[in-house]
UniProtKB/TrEMBL annotation, chain A:
Residue stretches making up the ABC transporter domain: 6-251
Segments crossing the lipid bilayer: none
Keywords, sorted A to Z: Amino-acid transport, ATP-binding, Cell membrane, Membrane, Nucleotide-binding, Transport
UniProt superkingdom: Bacteria
Protein name: Ectoine/hydroxyectoine ABC transporter ATP-binding protein EhuA
A molecular-function term among this protein's GO annotations: ABC-type amino acid transporter activity
Membrane disposition: Peripheral membrane protein
One CC-aspect GO term: plasma membrane
Automatic annotation (TrEMBL), chain B:
Membrane-spanning parts: 20-39, 51-73, 190-213
UniProt KW keywords: Amino-acid transport, Cell membrane, Membrane, Transmembrane, Transmembrane helix, Transport
InterPro entries for this protein: AA_ABC_transptr_permease_3TM, ArtM/GltK/GlnP/TcyL/YhdX-like, Ectoine_EhuC, MetI-like, MetI-like_sf
Stated name of the protein: Ectoine/hydroxyectoine ABC transporter permease subunit EhuC
PROSITE patterns assigned: ABC_TM1
Organism: Paracoccus aestuariivivens
Domain of life per record: Bacteria
Membrane topology: Multi-pass membrane protein
């Protein structure tokens, strides 16, 4: 229980000669709900994408569930991970994307059942039951036979969440899940995420600009700037009495952004 | 007395049947080739990639007529030189040349359509732990196919028209029959006008079929369902 489920250990990420993450260190405990905030380009998405194995790393070690993610134990120390290792590790994680990324050629139901059937080897009926349960959870039971383009953005994102949950991940990653939505549709998605945050066992890592929501559901906030954690703490600490000038500045600008809308 | 053109119809229709078969078989072969080499060109394996590029460039870079003559006249001689019987019946040579040729053009269509699928789709598939093969077959290709259909429709019509070339290796297609009647009757105007209309009619039907197929495979798309 004390072992972190996610550990970044001096992680370096570069794109060309641009260093995006500069010896980044942080831990997340099992079941913790953590929100990453920070200005555009600070590396928030990159952290999630590294965890989802969508981006590799140039230095350091990422641990998930006590095992190195991008490495394997070789005869003498760590070696780069094989495809098989990555495949196995990926099973612990799920991701919800800013642009939903639903499969447009599949019905809502198939979007949710496809991976459990093909990847986990679930029977069709079992996958269907699981999908129907999840559709009920996200309030879309009546939409199982529709195609994604027949749904609103908020509904699509709720399908995205159900699809990720169908794989029963231990860790769920959200990359700005409401940023692509019209303002009046944000609430329905946040409601679902808020409901999930009650799940004791599910570890959640969320990137969002919804500060009020982050404050409500997070155990801890990480404030990122230029690929480093400038400040971290409980929502109460970080939002009401930020210690760093940079944090205050950022929170001020976010407030202006919200008020300007 | 019946007008002459009615007497020309039976042999022309017989030829049309051969033209139709050539078109169908070679388009089918072309589609198979297009998928094999279109996907091959995007392979991570450098040998598969190089082989695919070579096929596409060779068949796009030489004329169909030369390919046809090579398969029909040169290949058997090459075979003779090394002691294998590589003589092909005209139909086989015709279908092969047409199919391989259209496959090379189609491969570029397939590659382009596959690359047009949004990268977010691959990321979602990876996040759900699909293997690259499952992603290709279950996510990428189904979304790429509707994208390819208009170009494949054009290629199929192109292919129908190209079948006329096989008359040059004595295959009894529509053009070959027309040529035979013309040699016999010298009635060029009527025969070639009929030939024109018959190809045009077949092209219209083919286009209509491709449109139907296009709609069928793109049913899930916005505004098409
Ligand atoms: N594929 C890529 N190639 C090159 N540079 C990239 C790539 N992906 C991200 N970057 C760069 O890495 C930096 C961090 O990007 P990242 O997407 O993690 O930022 P972010 O904090 O999520 O920002 P935002 O709030 O705008 O989403 C940025 O400077 C970005 O330009
Ligand atoms: Mg981002």
């Amino acid at each position: 229980m004390n072992d972190p489920i996610i550990r970044f250990d001096n992680v370096v990420k570069r794109f060309g000669d641009h260093t995006v993450l500069d010896e980044l260190n942080f831990d997340i405990r099992k079941g913790e709900k953590v929100t990453i905030i920070g200005p555009s380009g600070s590396g928030k998405s990159t952290v999630l994408r590294i965890l989802m194995t969508l981006e590799g790393i140039e230095g350091g070690v990422v641990h998930v569930g006590g095992e190195p993610l991008w490495h394997e134990h070789g005869p003498v120390g760590l070696v780069p991970a094989s495809q098989a290792h990555l495949h196995r590790m990926r099973g612990q994680l799920g991701m919800v994307f800013q642009q939903f990324n639903l499969f447009p050629h599949m019905t809502v139901l198939r979007n949710i059942t496809e991976a459990p059937v093909k990847v986990l080897g679930l029977g069709k009926a079992e996958a269907r039951d699981r999908a129907e349960e999840l559709l009920e959870l996200v309030g879309l039971s009546d939409h199982a036979q529709k195609y994604p383009h027949q749904l609103s953005g908020g509904q699509q994102q709720r399908v995205g969440i159900a699809r990720a949950l169908a794989m029963r991940p231990n860790i769920l990653l959200f990359d700005e899940p409401t940023s692509a939505l019209d303002p009046e549709l944000v609430g329905e998605v946040l409601n679902v995420i808020g409901q999930l945050s009650e799940e004791h066992d599910l570890t959640m890592l969320l990137v969002t600009h919804e500060m009020r929501f982050a404050r409500e559901i997070s155990d801890r906030i990480l404030f990122f700037d230029q690929g480093r954690i400038v400040e971290e703490g409980s929502p109460a600490q970080l939002f009401t009495s930020p210690q760093r000038e940079r944090t205050r500045e950022f929170l001020g600008s976010e407030l202006d952004r919200v008020l300007a809308v | 007395m019946t007008p002459h053109w009615i007497e020309y119809l039976p042999p022309l229709i017989e030829g049309a049947w051969v033209t139709l078969q050539l078109t169908v078989f070679s388009t089918f072969l072309g589609v198979v080739m297009a998928f094999l080499f279109g996907v091959g060109k995007l392979s991570h394996n450098p040998f598969i990639r190089a082989f695919s590029v070579a096929y596409i460039e060779v068949f796009r870079g030489t004329s169909l007529l030369v390919q046809l003559f090579w398969l029909y006249f040169a290949l058997p001689l090459t075979g003779q030189a090394i002691g294998i019987d590589l003589r092909l019946p005209p139909v086989v040579a015709g279908v092969l040349a047409l199919g391989l040729n259209i496959g090379a053009y189609g491969a570029e269509v397939v590659r382009g359509a596959i690359q047009s699928v949004h990268p977010g789709q691959h990321e979602a598939a990876l996040a759900l732990n699909f293997t690259p093969r499952q992603t290709m077959l279950g996510v990428t290709i189904p979304q790429a196919v509707p994208e390819m259909m208009p170009a494949f429709g054009n290629l199929a019509v192109q292919n129908l028209k190209d079948t006329a070339l096989v008359s040059l290796i004595s295959l009894g297609d529509m053009t070959f029959r027309a040529e035979q009647i013309r040699n016999f009757t010298q009635d060029s105007t009527v025969i070639y006008t009929m030939l024109l209309f018959m190809y045009f009619g077949m092209a219209l039907v083919l286009t209509a079929i491709m449109r139907l197929l296009e709609r069928r495979v793109g049913q899930w798309r916005p505004g098409k369902g």
